[in-house]
Amino acid sequence: MNEAVLKHRDGAVQVMSINNATARNAVTHELCDALPAALAEARADPGIGAIVLTGVGNAFCADGDLDRHAQRPTTTPLELRAGIERLHDLIRSIRSCSKPVIAAVEGSACGFIDCARV
Fold it and tell me: Is 89 in a helix, a strand, or coil?
């Protein structure tokens, strides 16, 4: 796979595209490393006022990459827990970003509202 996150700037907006179109931009270990790093870089840049998160191709993000998981040998409970923590770290990096992060999703979407934060 190439770069997990493609970035380009449009004025004060940093556009970040999940770059895994063949797997409908499924979440991978590479994405769990690259997106928080890209967000940290954008947070540190005073010229960036907002971040738009999108996906390459015709999907925003299709959850986990099941094909990659199927090719792996048996996952131990500790490995599974570590993977879940990586995903949680990815989500935390988006939620804790000091700049607005806007998801550009074409079509329908469903998500979770954290009622404690509303």
Answer: helix
Contact (Cβ atoms closer than 8 angstroms) between residue 51 and residue 8:
no
DSSP assignment string, 17-35: EE--GGGTT-B-HHHHHHH
The span from the CA of 74 to the CA of 12, in Å, is: 45
Q: What pTM did the predictor assign? A: 0.79
Mark out the alpha helices in the chain (DSSP H runs): 29-44, 66-71, 77-95
Residue 99: both structure tokens together? 């700049």
Domain boundaries of the chain, sorted by first residue: 5-106
- Express each pLDDT in 26-81 by its tens digit: 888 899 999 999 999 999 999 999 999 999 988 888 766 556 655 666 778 888 78
CATH architecture of 5-106: Alpha-Beta Complex (3.90)
- Which residues lie below 8 Å from residue 24, measured CB to CB, with a gap of 6+? 55, 57, 58, 59, 61, 62
